[in-house]
Amino acid sequence: MSALPPSLSPWAESLSLFPEPLSLHVGAYVARLAAAVGGMRSRSNREGGEPEGYDGLSRRGSFDRLLVSEWLWALEAPEELVRRAAFGELSYLKPSFRQPQGARRTVVLLDAGPDQLGNPRIAHLALLIVMARRAEAAGAAFTWGVLQAPPPKQRPYSEVTPSLVLSWLGARDIAPPSEEQLAAWREALALEATPEDAWLVGDARLARLPSARGLSRVEVGEVMEPGERKLQVDVRPASREARSVVLELPPADDCVRLLRDPFQARVAKPVVRLSEDRPTSFHFSAEGRRLVTFHADGSVSAMAIPASPTATLPKPRRIKVKPNQTVLAAGWRPNGGLLTLMEREDRYVLHGTLSQPRISRGVGSAEIIGGWSSGYAPTFPSATPGPGRLFSWRDRGRQEMVLLLTRTGGLFLVYRVEAEQRIEMVALDYPVTAMAEVGNKLVYIRGGAKVPVSSRLERLRREKWQTGDDGKPVFVLAPQEDAPPPPPRTSLHVMGTWDAEDVVLNVKQGEACFGWASDVPVVQGMGLLAARHASNVWRMFLADHQVDITVPDGARVVGVGGCHVAEHQVGLFVLGADQRTLLWLTEKRETVLRKASEVVTHAEVSHSAPLLAWLTRSGELVVMDLTMGRVLYRATTGGM
Asked: In degrees, to the nearest 5, what angle opens at C-alpha 572 toward C-alphas 302 and 125?
């Protein structure tokens, strides 16, 4: 950023957060508003505090603090001493007091209602910078918040940082602030009847609230004249005369940037793809930092997600498909790269090097794959419902196992029969609605009916590691036993803990999703989990309680986790009924995150990173950072 004008040097640190030319636009507002607001009134010597020596000279004082040099007049010219005292020309030592600075503070409450949405919020942003610097210069504390979200719903802020500003920009309300909300703020912040430095920022109607008595105000509104793009700001301190400032609005494009993401230097440049190369579906990898994408030409790729919109994007790892092959599933392993499962005529093909022992069938093919009761058996993987997901898992012997989760909810063990050089699968569980890696363990949600024990990997309790003819370990599957299916239930299972009981979830339906939470306590071994409890109700499972959230009719839940809109909170990420609007729902609020360019065919939230991705009908792929609310990556479809 270029050097700011000398007049803006007091706010240089705050303005340096903005890219050029936004810093100059905000800086112009800051300078004008700072002059209108003025500095904090300094406490006089009579306001109390412990004496702390002397601080300079004064023309007023008692004779016990008269300078020694002034007493010479009493000896040499007594009449001159009397004259100087009468005309206030004597010099006295000025006492200094140690003030309780911690008790001083500036409080700013911003209106996020319909009257202040849009351009008035640019003045709010500049006022935050002015008030924060003003309090710092006076050695006072600084507290600010949104009028419509009083404690305990939202805690007050004490800094002006990019993340907090973005959270504030995302806080919008359809109703103006009420008397109850302002009274709750006054009680929470212990604002006295005549607070020293508390400000309300919003529309002129704030003055009508009874609790606004004794508070200073800053009234912001747009100038309603044809062709004019200006803001009218009236500064009304509680103990001084009002001052008015008219601010010229920046260009329209810069206003949009200031209101959406004022700290983003550049937006993510779209990556143009050919129509034959457009993505058709995707999913996040197990560690959450890769995007496994399936393309219209039949290929599959794994792309590293950039850390910022301007970061250099490495070339994606990609596997082309031969004409006689079809991709069934794919996954990414941090230590093994891209893993794909394909179907070729009447056999399966697994691309990727595995650290896996040979599996000896020991029993007939029907015995390995069978064991499903009528009405519970899933169909074997095919490309018809769409590509599935591959998960890599280490068993007790630290050998790599490959698990396949299909779009229809079937969970399979994928293994290579070395003696016959082919890939086969064992059906493990059905229906599986969600699967993720939590605490270095693979966990999944089984919804609805539970399959017979004999058809799952719980048979490993009866397995034996044997030595083959060449001296290498052989994995022998035990014979299966028939068992009646238990009653339907939704439960969580951890891969490898076959002797442990499943965790039964207190929900009535099986659909679920795992999510990420950086500062919210979650259930150990489960992570952040949300499951459908009723038709329009989803239940989030936290460490010490459960939260039910109602989802609008026609909307679809695509993930669960935190968001830049509010700290220390988690909610549901939802695709609206219009199939374009992406929402974040908590127990008490609904926030619009983005509106896609057209109908969204698939959206998903990473379970281990603050990332939201969606794919539109035309093949536009967008990845959004949820901690900052900005787009990290965007790929559009171009012509040939």
From this structure: 95
